[in-house]
Amino acid sequence: xxxxxxxxxxxxxxxxxxxxxxxxxxxxxxxxxxxxxxxxxxxxxxxxxxxxxxxxxxxxxxxxxxxxxxxxxxxxxxxxxxxxxxxxxxxxxxxxxxxxxxxxxxxxxxxxxxxxxxxxxxxxxxxx
Length: 128
Fold this sequence. Notes:
The protein has no helices and 13 strands. It is an all-beta fold. Strands 1-2-3 form a three-stranded antiparallel β-sheet, with no helix packed on it. It is globular. This is YmaF family protein. Pfam families: YmaF (PF12788).
């Protein structure tokens, strides 16, 4: 019986209440990549006298087919609060030298002593 090398990772799933779950993502099968992720980062809009920075990795998606990625991260703490950023990227945009990126845009969750939200937008880095 041939052993097939498999690589991947486990990631905490966003659940509510008493539920706790993990997602298993296989990233390569027999030495061939199966899924990929993208780094993303940026600065939110200036609202309520401040901005927030954010950084993260998209959820995995398959190679070689039309796809989008889900993303989730938490902003930096400014003025004693932070915001959640989450959503779904746009479709893949091919890069001239290979690979692809995705655009993303949205609004943070509402938070702060004076409740407010921030706008954010950007493009992911190339596939990883």
